[in-house]
Design brief:
- With 403 residues, the protein is an alpha+beta fold.
- Helix content is 16%, strand content 36%.
- It contains five helices and 19 strands.
- The strands form five sheets. Strands 5-2-1-8 form a four-stranded antiparallel sheet, with no helix packed on it. It has a four-stranded antiparallel sheet with strand order 4-3-6-7, with no helix packed on it. The chain has a four-stranded antiparallel sheet with strand order 13-10-9-16.
- Strand 9 and strand 10 form a beta hairpin.
- The N terminus is likely disordered.
């Protein structure tokens, strides 16, 4: 796909773009002037010339505005998938996707395909030796696939496995463009031949090499003393012999930021098991714990851009136990909407869903609910507000509102 098409990349500069386009001779004139080449050969040359021109156009767009075609830019859309476990086989069906981000130069459409990957313990597994990608659907933001993939796995691995669905836009001129990805945990898939179907919202791409665990102890003392002890970490990814990890700790909405000291390993081995044993205090009232969470980010003191992972710990349980202690998974959460508290996120989603249901009951606005609500048949409606990171989906079945 993206790699194989690199043979068509042009060596011309951006200033030569007009000459590239202007020197493309019409096919009929070229047939008259050169009888040695067949019509098929001339069509191939014309196609290659078009690819060179498109490559230069995209390169100019990226220089004018680096956000154009940026993989970490605006991500939107949903993907519908089904899963079933039968006799040591995990069957995964990619049904369809909708409302994908347009990735062509004009910003109107895309040529999407889906890549399906199984992760067990953070390691990728192939789909029975076959290419685990769907076919490419041309010129659409709402592709329908209905393709099935199978993965060999043991039943006990269902509790720890994940399926990654990454959506890409096929590009003949340059590398394929990333549209979005979603993860599905397999712990809710039954092992009794029942099919599990769900919709997944697409998110920005994450780095699977980021990982590990961090040991943390949290204690709350009345009236407003929250103590956070950062003890150690293990199995850190993306570390080298020069890495000196440290942890940043903060609570969204609280104007305090704490940092541990950088851990310096004495020998020349990679520092993947640092130890800090430092305690920090935050002024948090007990009644505020339900709406708060702690963010811990592991970085390298020698490289500000180095990101070794982070974790978010909800403080809601502290209202009952007054103390939490354990190991928390480090992940790449830079593109996650979890920077807000789970409570705030759930409230916003519920309010948005209730508002959309009310609009459906009154069939307002008309441009959204154009079909008569009592008409037989199925109707699916999705509304998304990117600035609020909120979306809502509902379905009308024979006039009956079903979420």
């Amino acid at each position: 796909m993206g790699n194989s098409s690199s043979l068509f990349k042009s060596n011309k500069s951006d200033g030569d773009l007009l000459s590239v386009i202007s020197t493309t001779t019409p096919l009929d004139d070229r047939l008259d002037n050169n009888n040695k080449k067949t019509e098929e050969q001339l069509r191939v040359e014309q196609h290659h010339s078009y690819l060179n021109s498109m490559f230069n156009l995209k390169r100019m767009f990226k220089k004018l505005d680096p956000s154009v075609l940026n993989q970490m830019g605006n991500v939107q859309g949903e993907i519908k998938v089904s899963c079933k476990f039968v006799d040591y086989l995990l069957l995964v069906k990619v049904v369809l996707a909708q409302d994908l981000t347009a990735k062509d130069v004009r910003g109107e459409t895309a040529d999407p395909y889906v890549k399906v990957e199984l992760l067990i313990g953070g390691k990728l597994h192939d789909a029975e030796g076959r290419l685990n990608t769907t076919k490419v659907i041309k010129n659409t933001r709402n592709p329908v696939y209905n393709e099935i993939f199978s993965f060999e796995m043991k039943k006990e691995n269902l509790k720890e496995a994940k399926i990654r669905f990454s959506v890409w836009c096929y590009d003949e001129a340059t590398e394929d463009d990333f549209i979005g990805e979603a993860f599905l945990t397999t712990d809710n898939i039954a092992d009794d031949d029942q099919t599990f179907t769900t919709w997944l919202s697409l998110n920005p791409q994450i780095d699977l090499n980021v990982g590990g665990e961090i040991s943390v102890k949290l204690t709350h003392k009345l009236p407003q003393n929250l103590q956070i002890s950062v003890e150690s970490a293990n199995n850190l990814g993306k570390v080298t012999t020069t890495t000196q990890p440290y942890v940043r700790i903060y609570i969204p909405g609280v104007p305090y930021l704490h940092k541990t000291k950088a851990y310096n390993q004495d020998d020349d081995e990679a520092c993947d098991e640092p130890c800090w044993n430092e305690t920090f205090q935050f002024p948090i009232l007990r009644e505020e714990l339900i709406n708060k969470h702690v963010v811990l980010i592991v970085s390298d003191v020698n490289d500000d851009s180095a990101y070794l992972g982070e974790t978010h710990i909800s403080l809601e349980d502290l209202m009952l136990t007054c103390q939490l202690e354990g190991k928390y998974q480090l992940q790449d959460l830079r593109a996650s909407v979890a920077t807000r508290s789970r409570w705030a996120k759930c409230v916003l989603q519920e309010e948005f869903q209730e508002a959309l249901a009310a609009h459906a009951n009154y069939t307002t606005p008309k441009f959204l609910f154009s079909r008569p609500i009592g008409q037989a048949g199925n109707q699916a409606i999705t509304v998304r507000v990117p600035k609020a990171s909120a979306s809502s989906r509902l379905r009308l079945v024979n006039g009956v509102l079903v979420h």
